[in-house]
Design a protein that fits this description.
Low-confidence stretches: 151-160, 215-226
Mean pLDDT: 84
Helix content: 55-70%
Order of helices and strands: HHHHHHHHHHH
Number of domains: 1
Strand content: under 5%
Structural class: mainly alpha
Number of strands: 0
CATH architecture: Orthogonal Bundle
Number of helices: 11
CATH topology: Tetracycline Repressor, domain 2
Shape: flat
Distance between the termini: 53 Å
């Protein structure tokens, strides 16, 4: 009978996130993880073969924090609630954002989140190809906005510490008035509000496509239904 593992997957996730949240991605190693868990580095090699597996663990850890809401009558409310949970989990760990962009994992936590979002979107009555497009659009929006807002703002969870926002705000007003305008907004905006406004943009686009006449067979046409 094989020996019981010394650490659970959840314990490993928590320890790895603690290191990265406090010190950044470069601080995570087998030795650092072992130190946090109070064991030797060789013990950690029983769980992970290389750094890629450690990075995947971090993505799993972020998605494990997503608390899936109970299903509502309106599929749009389900989509909003699931996306907000995903957004808040990702933005809580800015150092992990690059890995969310580049790592794929079949861990149960990530699969459950994906399935819940797909299930909510499917209740709109859309076809399978539209379901795929909507799923990818929302995922791309979440990660892209998180990268834009938080990728260089590791000292805070809004745009105020982003050097690019400050630079845009200092541009000549006679040449770049709109860039200066949105820089002022970005410096003071609430990240959750900006995210929710973006979600509504996408949902509004879906609603417009649902209103398209069925006889239109363009690649972007939607199968209507509610």
């Amino acid at each position: 009978m094989p020996a019981k593992p010394k650490f659970t997957r959840e314990q490993l996730q928590t320890a790895a996130l603690k290191i990265v949240d406090e010190e950044g991605l470069s601080a995570l190693s087998m030795r650092a993880l072992a130190a946090v868990l109070g064991t030797g580095p060789m013990t950690i090699y029983n769980y992970f073969h290389d750094r890629d597996e450690l990075d995947t663990l971090l993505v799993e850890a972020v998605f494990s924090e997503v608390c899936l809401p109970e299903e509502q009558d309106d599929w749009r409310e389900d989509v909003r609630a699931i996306l907000l949970e995903m957004w808040q989990a990702i933005r809580s760990h800015p150092h992990v954002i690059p890995l969310v962009l580049t790592r794929r994992t079949s861990h149960e936590a990530t699969l459950e989140v994906a399935e819940a979002l797909l299930r909510a979107l499917a209740r709109s009555g859309c076809s399978a190809d539209v379901l795929l497009a909507a799923f990818r659009t929302f995922n791309g929006f979440i990660v892209g906005l998180a990268q834009a807002q938080l990728g260089s703002a590791t000292k805070g969870l809004d745009g105020s510490s982003d050097v690019h926002v400050a630079e845009a705000g200092a541009l000549p007003d006679d040449r770049f008035p709109r860039l200066r305008e949105i820089a002022r907004v970005a410096a003071a905006t609430n990240s959750d509000r900006e995210f929710l406004v973006g979600v509504e943009f996408i949902l509004a686009g879906m609603a417009k496509q649902f209103a398209t006449q069925p006889e239109e067979k363009s690649p972007g046409s939607w199968v209507a239904g509610n």
